[in-house]
Amino acid sequence: EAQVTQNPRYLITVTGKKLTVTCSQNMNHEYMSWYRQDPGLGLRQIYYSMNVEVTDKGDVPEGYKVSRKEKRNFPLILESPSPNQTSLYFCASSLWTSTDTQYFGPGTRLTVL
Amino acid sequence: AQTVTQSQPEMSVQEAETVTLSCTYDTSESDYYLFWYKQPPSRQMILVIRQEAYKQQNATENRFSVNFQKAAKSFSLKISDSQLGDAAMYFCAYRGPEGGSEKLVFGKGTKLTVNP
Fold first, then answer.
1. Chain A residues whose C-beta sits inside 8 Å of any chain B C-beta
2. CA dihedral for A24, A96, B77, B61, sign (positive or negative)
3. In the prediction, which pLDDT does B1 show?
4. CA distances in angstroms from A89 to A5, A7, A10, A37, B99, listed in the order given
5. Of A5, A34, A70, B32, which has fewest CB within 10 angstroms of its CB?
6. What angle do CA A102, A107, A108 make, to 5 degrees?
7. CA A66 to CA A94: how far, in whole Å?
8. Residue of B nearest to A3 (CA)
9. What is the three-class DSSP state of A63?
10. Mind listing the pLDDT tens digit for each residue in B2-59?
């Protein structure tokens, strides 16, 4: 089944404890992206990657890192999480670029205490 | 920076009726892409419809259609014959021209309730 998977689906952590949210797609997509969703703010793009060689910032990259060592994986890293990073996170992928249909993962609910 | 505005935080419609969700955007580009995504209570985001700015014809997907007014920078979504399964958050999104930034900019969303 073609899909985007994220792990974990739910995570409660404490301020400053490094964490990684994994994202994997099995559709051989080039473009991958991370978003955060907050009530009243909609979706905001954190980072995106055109391919394993190109990664760029979205609108809210502060406090996040990403890595694209393999085409299928695009982990989101929070080196020192803070409470303002409590949010619902979505990973998405598309065939070539952001003009193509975005296929979203199921979301990761992160709470930083 | 491009912005996308959805002025209706919440909307409601009776089953089988028609509802229109509004979206406006700000851009200086002449070519770009616009999208409507649906997020049902399951949280799974799904593409509803896609419009390329250089195409004059409004995009249509079954009961979903758009009214694309380029000069007014307006991109509204019309849902005809509303069904209970249409209840969801709807997000409008903008993407600039080919060869430009790969960013996707989303609006804040409109929560649609469908009443039986």
1. 31, 33, 35, 40-45, 48, 50, 56, 58-59, 88, 90, 92, 97-99, 101-102, 104, 106-107
2. negative
3. 66
4. 12, 11, 10, 6, 27
5. A70
6. 145
7. 17
8. B44
9. coil
10. 899 999 999 999 999 999 999 999 999 999 999 999 999 999 899 999 999 998 889 9
